[in-house]
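re: ur question from earlier - yeah i can do the single chain one, its not a big deal. heres the input i used so u can compare w yours
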Amino acid sequence: MSPQAQVAVPTLPMLVERWAQVVEEIERGYALSFDDYLNDLDLRQLIARSVRNVPPGAREQLEPLRAQLTALDTRFVAHTEPTPECVWGEANAEDEGWSPSGEWWYYRQPMDHPEDW
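and the output i got, formated as tokens:
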């Protein structure tokens, strides 16, 4: 594979940094489309899955990142409101096994978002 064709694989810290940017966008008033928002929530899902898959021996090293993620999630919750259903739709939630208590980010929307959602 040529160097031009190589794709950088994001690390967990890189994913959390992008989540920080998403949270900042939501705090300012989310101006992007609903599809962009769904993609941003999928980022949070990817982070959750990545954290769950860290080998037991390496989990202690994740504590600073977990603390950062907890702070970001608190800010996210403060600037979003619960939705009556999964934002990806109930059929997707059932297929994926998502629940408001587990994948709670899929059950929230920004308080300030475009009207055409």
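Helices lie at 12-28, 34-52, 63-78, 90-96. not sure if urs matches, ping me
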